[in-house]
Design a protein that fits this description.
This protein folds into 2 domains: 16-46; 66-250, Jelly Rolls (Sandwich), CATH 2.60.120. 9% of the residues lie in helices and 45% in strands. It is mostly beta strands. The protein has 1 helix and 16 strands. It starts with a strand and ends with a strand.
């Protein structure tokens, strides 16, 4: 069964104002040049460095660390339509299996739709990853994962967009709280290209990755454990459809 919430538009997607950054950078370079000139005049720079005295460095034997095996809590390639995610349609969305992937279509603007697995999980520390790509609708969208899901009013959400941005939020007592506002990243494959979305949650430290690279780290202690879900959202335009594949949830080493 799909669940929904109105989308959060409190933080708008924005580009970087490079003119302000370059202007500030020019002033900084000028100040640095003046400082170097003054230091050279009084003899504090420009002198040859003293030759260091050789010291003995003790030999340390290398020790190979032992890694703890990771437990796979959940894995699904969506090749079987009986893996528990279900299928359905309502006034706002459609969800179900299609061609070895799991699809979520949002047919209403300004709406977030998520679907949980058929089995309830209560996971604390985890490594959650899934491949996803949009197949229809505007690039002004969001898709990703929900984790530490307590109930429909309390959970974390990590999403990216087809126009190359990402955001971290939590739903707290039926209100959206932004932990990391929309930010652009060249690591995100835009348009209908596939992205590997991953979350590492260890205690209060929450790490967010895309395509194998770290995007951001958030420290938050609001939710200690919970379930997980796949999520898709719209803003001004409806008709966004996203497909998911290769979902895996593991323990951390």
């Amino acid at each position: 069964m799909a669940e929904t919430k109105p989308s959060s538009t409190e933080d708008k997607k924005e580009g970087t104002d490079w003119s302000k950054i370059l202007t500030a950078g020019g002033g900084l370079l000028a100040a640095l040049a003046a400082l170097l000139t003054a230091l050279n005049a009084i003899g504090l720079i420009g002198k040859p460095a003293a030759t260091p005295t050789a010291t003995h460095v003790p030999t340390v034997s290398a020790v190979t660390p032992t890694r703890t095996a990771k437990t796979v809590f959940f894995s699904d390639d969506f090749g079987s339509t009986t893996s528990g995610w279900g299928s359905g349609t309502d006034d706002d969305s459609e969800w179900g299996y299609e061609n070895g992937e799991y699809r979520i279509l949002v047919t209403k603007p300004n709406l977030v739709v998520w679907v949980k697995p058929g089995t309830e999980y209560d996971l604390a520390d985890l490594n959650l990853s899934v491949e996803a790509h949009s197949v229809a609708g505007t690039d002004d969208n969001e898709y990703g994962v929900v984790f530490r899901y307590v109930d429909g009013d309390n959970f974390y959400k990590f999403t990216i967009s087809s126009d190359g941005q990402y955001r971290v939020q939590m739903q707290l007592k039926n209100e959206w709280v932004t932990l990391k506002p929309w930010a652009k990243s060249s690591l995100i494959h835009q348009g209908h290209s596939t992205n590997l979305i991953r979350v590492e949650a260890r205690g209060t430290e929450l790490k967010f990755f895309v395509n194998g690279e770290l995007l951001t780290i958030v420290d938050d202690a609001t939710f200690a454990s919970g379930n997980f879900a796949l999520v898709v959202g719209t803003f001004d335009e409806a008709g966004v459809e996203v497909r998911f594949d290769s979902l895996t949830v593991r323990s951390l080493p």
